[in-house]
């Protein structure tokens, strides 16, 4: 009987670990998505892998690309903002379009 309680305790600890780390919640969401899928995929395992992100073996490379993309987006936004400021500054020194046509 003591052996049964020890195994039960380990089971409960493991279950709490899975709950705290978000594994149970994530698995539940993916399984619900599979359940709600109108046309069931031919491979449920591939569906789970795809939705858990395990379908791509190059995950570290993808993460690096995502970081690079985020940096490029920031630089792009900064460049757009600088461009707007420079256009406004340039507009101060250019004659209005109506005066150019009159000449």
From TrEMBL:
<dbReference type="GO" id="GO:0005634">
    <property type="term" value="C:nucleus"/>
</dbReference>
<feature type="coiled-coil region">
    <location>
        <begin position="62"/>
        <end position="89"/>
    </location>
</feature>
<protein>
    <submittedName>
        <fullName>c-Myc-binding protein-like</fullName>
    </submittedName>
</protein>
<dbReference type="InterPro" id="IPR026060">
    <property type="entry name" value="AMY1"/>
</dbReference>
<dbReference type="GO" id="GO:0003713">
    <property type="term" value="F:transcription coactivator activity"/>
</dbReference>
<keyword id="KW-0539">Nucleus</keyword>
<keyword id="KW-0175">Coiled coil</keyword>
<comment type="similarity">
    <text>Belongs to the AMY1 family.</text>
</comment>
């Amino acid at each position: 009987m003591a052996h049964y309680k020890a195994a039960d305790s380990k089971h409960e600890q493991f279950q709490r670990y899975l709950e705290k780390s978000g594994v149970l919640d994530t698995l539940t969401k993916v399984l619900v998505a599979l359940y709600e899928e109108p046309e069931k995929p031919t491979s449920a395992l591939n569906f789970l892998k795809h939705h858990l992100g395990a379908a791509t073996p190059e995950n570290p490379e993808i993460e690096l690309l995502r970081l690079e993309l985020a940096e490029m987006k920031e630089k792009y936004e900064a460049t757009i903002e600088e461009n707007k400021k420079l256009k406004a500054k340039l507009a101060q020194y250019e004659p209005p379009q109506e005066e150019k046509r009159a000449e």
